[in-house]
Amino acid sequence: MAVTLSRRGFLQSAAPGLAAADFASAAPGGDPASLTLEAAAAAVRARRISAVELTAACLQRIEKLNPILNAFITVTGEQALEQARELDDEARRGRRRSPIHGVPIALKDLIDTAGIRTTAASALFADRVPSEDAEVVRRLKAAGAVLVGKTNMDEFAYNFTSETSRFGPVKNPWKPERIPGGSSGGSAAAVSARMCFGALGSDTGGSIRLPAALCGIAGLKPSYGLVSARGVLPLAWSMDHVGPMCRTAADTALLLGTMVGYDPADPGSAQAPAADYAAAVKQPVRGFRIGIARKPFFESLDAEIESAVNAAIETARGLTREARDVTLPELPPSPVIRAEALAYHEPMLKESASRYHPHTLHEIREGEKVTLGDYVRGLRELRRARREIGRVFEQVDIVLTPVSPRSPFALGKVETPDLIYLRNTIPFNVYGIPAMSIPCGFTRDGAPIGLQLAGPLFGEEKLFAFAGAFERATEWSNRVPPG
C-alpha cells in the first residue's frame, strides 16, 4: 500500500492527543527515526516513547524519501501501526517480548510474509502473496518487531547493483545518482536513510555486505545455517545466508539475537552454540589477534579505499594484541551458484522466460553450461574450503579485508570487470563463515567505504566485539546521509 498520511495525519491516527513535544522528546533533533535501534528499544522499554510513535516516524520518512530512493516495493503502513498499537498495549500490561519489542524493521522482498505480497522484485511474482511467514519473520514477530514493509532488490537477488528490479532501481542515500549495491540495496538504503531501524537482507555472494558498505551501515552475513532460510526465495541453497542490516554493530547484534535458532524444517539449518551477541559488542578486544588477508583482497583497489582500509588496520593494531598477514584457502571458480539457480528457475523458464529481466535471464541460463560433473566437483570444493578455513582461525581471531575494491558507480553504467565488486565478498559464502561490513571511511566526494571482518564458524561474537571496539574508536558509524 502507498503511504499518504502527513506527519499530522500519522500522529492523529496513531496516537490521538499526542503533543509534538512528547513525540520528539526521546530523539536527537526532534525525530525519533534518528535514534539507533538500540536507543529506540531502550526508549520503548523505559516508556519514554511508544512503538506507535516510532512507527509513525519511520512511515513519515518513507513517505518523504521513498519517491527519491525507491527503497521499498511494499509499505505496510496500516498493518504496522496496528501491530505497534498491540505491542504498546502489551507493554502497558507489563509484557515485553524481547529487546527489540516495538521497533520498526523492514524485510527484503524475497522473504515470505503471510498475506503481504513477496515479489523478489520480479514481474513473474508481482502479485504473489504467500500464505505463510518465513521462519525468520515468525521469529521477528514473536520478538515484537514492527514490520513496516518489503524492500526493493535485484530481481531474484541475481545482481549486485539493485538496478534489475521490476519496480525500478534503488538509489544510494549518500549519492542518489549512484548504485547502492545489491542485491539487498533497498534494505541498505532504507536503514541508511532512517526509514527503519533495521532490515533483513540475503547474501549469496555479497548481497548484504556490499550494499552495507556502499550505503555506510553495518551488515552481517551470519555463519551458514545460523539463521533459517526457510520461506526465503533462494538463489543458491548451498550459499544463501539471511542476515541483519543496521546502523551500528550494537543494533545488528540485537537484531541477530531475535533471528537465530535451529529450524528442523530447513535442510541447511545448523545447531549452533548459545551466544549473547549484544553483550559481545561491549567486550574488550585487547587480546585479539588480527589477520590481514591481502591476496587477492587488496589487489586493484581504488586509492581512497586502500587508504581508508589501511587507516582502519592501524586503528585495529592499536585496539588489539597483534596484526599479521594471513593466507586464506585458495578457491577455484565455483559453478554452484549458477547450477543451483538454474535448478530453482528451470520449471518457470519453460513458460515464463519473457517475464524475467534480461540480465537475470542471461545469468540464470549461464547455469545451462554447468555439467553434472562440474556441479558435483563444485560441491566437493565447497566442502573442502569450509573445512580448511578453520585452520586460519587457529592463528588469528578475525580476518580483515576491504569489502569492495571500488566506489559505487553511476546508475545505468555497468563497470568492467563488474564482478570485481563481489571479488572480496563471495569467498566467505563459499567458506560459510560469518562476515560483516562496517563503515571505515568516506571518499573525498562523500561515498562510504566498508571494512570487512570475518571470523570462525559461529564466531559472530568475535565480530561484534571488534566492530563495537572499532566504532567506539572512530566516528564513521555516526555519519548520516543528507535528507
- Helical region count? 16
Strand order in the largest sheet: 1-3-2-4-6-5-10-11-9-7-8
Under CATH, the topology can be stated as: Amidase signature (AS) enzymes
Distance from N terminus to C terminus (CA atoms, Å) equals 23 Å
- Proper CATH architecture: Alpha-Beta Complex
Give the mean pLDDT. Answer: 94
Order of helices and strands: HHHHEHEHEHEHEEHHEHEHHHEHEEH
CATH secondary-structure class: Alpha Beta
Give the topology, please.
Blueprint: H1 7-14, H2 20-24, H3 37-45, H4 51-69, E1 72-75, H5 77-92, E2 104-108, H6 135-142, E3 146-151, H7 185-192, E4 198-203, H8 209-215, E5 218-221, E6 241-246, H9 249-259, H10 277-280, E7 289-293, H11 303-319, E8 322-326, H12 336-352, H13 358-366, H14 372-392, E9 398-402, H15 426-431, E10 435-442, E11 448-454, H16 460-473
Parallel strand pairs: 2-3, 2-4, 7-8, 7-9
Antiparallel strand pairs: 1-3, 4-6, 5-6, 5-10, 9-11, 10-11
Helix pairs in contact: 1-4, 4-5, 11-16, 12-13
For the structure shown, list the relevant keywords.
alpha/beta, 37% helix, Amidase signature (AS) enzymes, 11 strands
Provide a descriptive summary of the structure in words.
58% of the residues are buried. The chain is globular. It has helices at residues 7-14, 20-24, 37-45, 51-69, 77-92, 135-142, 185-192, 209-215, 249-259, 277-280, 303-319, 336-352, 358-366, 372-392, 426-431, 460-473, and strands at 72-75, 104-108, 146-151, 198-203, 218-221, 241-246, 289-293, 322-326, 398-402, 435-442, 448-454. It has 16 helices and eleven strands. The chain is of the alpha/beta class. An eleven-stranded mixed sheet has the order 1-3-2-4-6-5-10-11-9-7-8, sandwiched between helices. It has a single domain (7-336, 364-478), classed as Amidase signature (AS) enzymes (Alpha-Beta Complex), CATH 3.90.1300.10. It is 37% helix and 13% strand. Mean pLDDT is 94; it is low at 1-26.
